[in-house]
Design a protein that fits this description.
Shape of chain A: elongated
Oligomer: homodimer
Strand order of the largest sheet of chain A: 7-4-6-5-9-8
Helix content of chain A: 10-25%
Distance between the termini of chain A: 50 Å
Largest sheet of chain A: 6 strands, mixed
């Protein structure tokens, strides 16, 4: 038996980010920039008004009282055709270019317009630069817009669009193949024969992959036959960036996946017994001409989920080029004592966590352990990491991996 | 001027979840179940083994020493054709049906098989039910699988797939139209003329909407002409569930959006000055035959983002039927004093937040305020809510809306 950290190091040790590729800004949402991106345009490109008001010369308002001649108006998008003479002002809208001659903008709420005389009265001294956004104030040419390794979220994509970029070089989105193994599995909705069960692992993993920003490839369910499993792995390894299979890694007579992974993965591949509950059996190797990482997860749905969180998701984040490969984890306060037996293993327990008034994350309830109770873990928003011990007292803290940050919110909003 | 909470109540007061519709499980990821969904199949459907080992009669091991005749093997997916006689055992793989006669499974690691005599020796007393999963242990017929209002995440979709569901009734995914207004806006990547700027709001909002699980509709940029804006709003209101426009809500001569929203929205629509910085001008009304909510946001990109977070995103979550309409917010500790002026407004400031060893969220740095500095706010993972005051001392707490939970992680993992 090896411990979780060693198994994880084994998985992650030689993984690198996937090659980068050019993609449209739309396609890049959630991907990671492969290179630093520098600004090639100043933003704004020209001095402009940040307010609706009047562009004028600050000196004309030095006494705190001024009546200026209104000399036209400038809208956003207009070319700055006007020149502002002394004792004149130009009506200006937010975003319109500051006309030559003017050096400040007085906001409209601080002016009194007399349309009969064509003048505007201002009863304060307006400093130079007031309500002016100067060229390059937001972005200077040559400035870093996005760093290599930064995640391209909506804000960064907006910044790039604001520079006229239509495409960006980003780490490829991992294409991840999902295979279920087992003679007992049924994928369609028809009636079950005795001994058959429906495949829950594959739809769950396909959803988890989409949640993680990967492109899932549904390979389907294959029967417990060594040659079929082997040829499926060999074929799919040429078409994807990672393979996740479930079932076939334990000590049963037809647990062929571990053999396939260790055969195809060569001397670097391993079939392991990990000191974790659930999720003990686990196989990992890199297969095919592109040395695609292949994960053999246990077949029990909750075990699959735990193994996915411990080993697969961090690896996929690494393939995607992310700096932060781990989910948020926090030291959470136990609101009830937690029983566990001392068995040398890390226990991973689904739980419901909430932020309380003390600003700490509290564990309000824990899902009864039992590696096949998938319906019971629906709704849990945290995975507790319980190192070997005889139990943990109320009020002590445990490490909790947060699966849904929004669900930590102190209370649901009333509708 | 009205305060943020009043403006928000005005937006949310009469919004309801969108109608529900049948969708495939794949399409439903992230949507909200509209009805309670009950189990129509027990899971597992039959008693089966949770371990690889031998199915046997507990009574045969009562003395703590037994040598049993091996009577065949059962794989997962096999029909349970065998009957286990007294003093017999059947080799059984995980997931295979427990054969009649047997009442427990001894795991393979606790047995010694003698293939010469066709027997298996067991040196312990195996209790009834050990390593047996009974029918209905995970899910009983009639049990609630998913509650009305539950979000259909990967786990819940896996549970539904495990019951043979191919479709689910869920609240429709909001289709949200995004319109930019402004003569100065350029959407393509070509050279800019003086006075023109590139449209950053639309690509940013389209990305934020995808991050929020909505279906964005890109309406493009329209010029500052009342009739064009009006006809665009009227047309698009028939094709979407919500409209977000940027620009045209302030006090400029061509700020037509507020007029369009209040005209089309009738007496229930309002153009507001909200006591918040940035994000003061804001218009909201419900327009068209379907009374689609229409949001008029300010044109400055950072103002747009703040208004989106304060008013739009909670409303879209409500349309989507979510119980938790707010992002995670926490009381965060200020690591540096925060200056602000007392102006009667809520100030909303982008910041970088991290969880420290004390388990609390700390604000490590704050983005210099300035409503148009979009590139500066890229990378921020929190929005601080600073009520009116003359500043906040180091060590005090402020309310922080968390924009990216993963970025709260204490440290980035080394690659």
């Amino acid at each position: 038996m090896i411990d979780v950290e060693e198994a994880k190091r084994f998985v992650l040790s030689e993984l690198l980010a996937l090659p980068s590729t050019g993609m449209t800004l739309v396609d890049a949402l959630g991907c990671v920039a492969s290179d630093e991106i520098l600004a090639h345009e100043a933003v704004p490109g020209f001095a402009n008004s940040s307010m609706d008001g009047f562009a004028l010369r600050s000196a004309d308002t030095a006494t705190g009282q001024a009546t200026l001649i209104v000399a036209g108006a400038l809208l956003a998008g207009d070319a700055p055709s006007r020149y502002v003479e002394p004792r004149h002002a130009v009506r200006i809208m937010t975003g319109a270019p500051l006309p030559e001659g003017a050096d400040c903008v007085c906001m409209i709420e601080q002016t009194v317009v007399d349309s009969d005389t064509g003048t505007v009265a201002i009863s304060r001294s307006v400093p130079v630069g007031e309500n002016v956004r100067y060229a390059g104030e937001d972005v200077k040419v040559g400035q870093t817009l996005v760093g290599a390794g930064d995640e391209l979220d909506a804000i960064r994509l907006g910044v790039l669009a604001g520079q006229g970029f239509a495409t960006v070089s980003a780490v490829s989105r991992p294409r991840v193949a999902v295979i279920s193994t087992g003679n007992e599995l049924v994928s369609s909705g028809g009636a079950l024969r005795y001994g058959e069960i429906r495949d829950t692992n594959r739809p769950t993993l396909l959803g988890l992959l989409r949640e993680a920003g990967c492109t899932p490839i549904d390979v389907g369910a294959v029967r417990d036959e060594y040659d079929v499993i082997r040829s499926t792995f060999e074929r799919i390894a040429e078409e994807c960036d990672a393979i996740i299979s479930t079932g076939g890694v334990s000590v049963g007579d037809v647990d062929h996946v571990k053999g396939v992974i260790t055969e195809l993965g060569g001397t670097d591949a391993r079939s392991m017994q990990v000191a974790v509950r659930p999720g003990k059996p686990f196989a990992f190797g890199r297969i095919g001409s592109r040395r695609v990482p292949a994960f053999g997860l246990p077949g029990n749905p909750v075990s699959t989920r735990v193994s996915y969180e411990l080993f697969v998701r961090p690896a996929l984040r690494m393939l995607g080029g992310h700096r932060a490969i781990e989910r948020l984890s926090v030291d959470a306060v136990l609101d009830e004592a937690l029983k566990r037996s001392s068995d040398g293993k890390l226990h991973v327990v689904h739980a419901c966590a909430r932020i309380h008034d003390d600003g700490r994350v509290h564990i309000e309830s824990v899902v009864r352990p039992g590696s096949h109770l998938m319906s019971a873990v629906a709704g849990a928003n945290a995975l507790l990491m319980l190192p070997n011990s005889d139990g943990i007292a109320r009020g002590e803290t445990v490490r909790a991996i947060i699966l849904s940050a929004e669900a930590l919110a102190r209370r649901d909003e009333a509708r």
